[in-house]
Amino acid sequence: MTHGGNIIEELTTDHREVEDLFGQIGATPSGQEERKRLIDEVTIELVRHSVAEEQYLYPAVREHVANGDAMADKELKDHSDVEKILKKLEGCSADDPQLDQLFLALKESVTRHVQDEEANLFPQLRTACSAQALDTLGEKVRTAKKMAPTRPHPSTPVTPPANKLLAPGAGLVDRARDFVTGRGKS
Known about the structure:
The protein is mainly alpha-helical. Helix content is 77%, strand content 0%.
């Protein structure tokens, strides 16, 4: 899938990639290492995506969209719920009986969140912001994803400025751990 474009196009591409990974996970039999590898891959993508949304999407929603504070707060709550599931999944082995149950909870939560963003938040943001502002936000999101953590950190701040200060450091540590363990390498 092609990344680029404005913030809505970039984040929508991420959504499709996560849906594709969910399909691959669902098609892989329980207990197989490949299933755990794919869950690690979806975790990496969801954490990077969430951090970028928290840094740029939700502040823009707060600033430009009517009732934006309430919308952003709801989305941040969704992220918190997903991150807690991801943290539990991180501790599961491929043959852990909880893995399948947690995966289904993750898929349901993420699917509901994506549908809400695409049906409600994105159209309102598109109406409220200029094309140039949306393009600039898209660039910022792509940059943030490159520096973002790759593992769930449920206790870290999710709002600026603290999240913008702490995420790159956590991302550096996560990427170093991933390099050493081979996590995220297909």
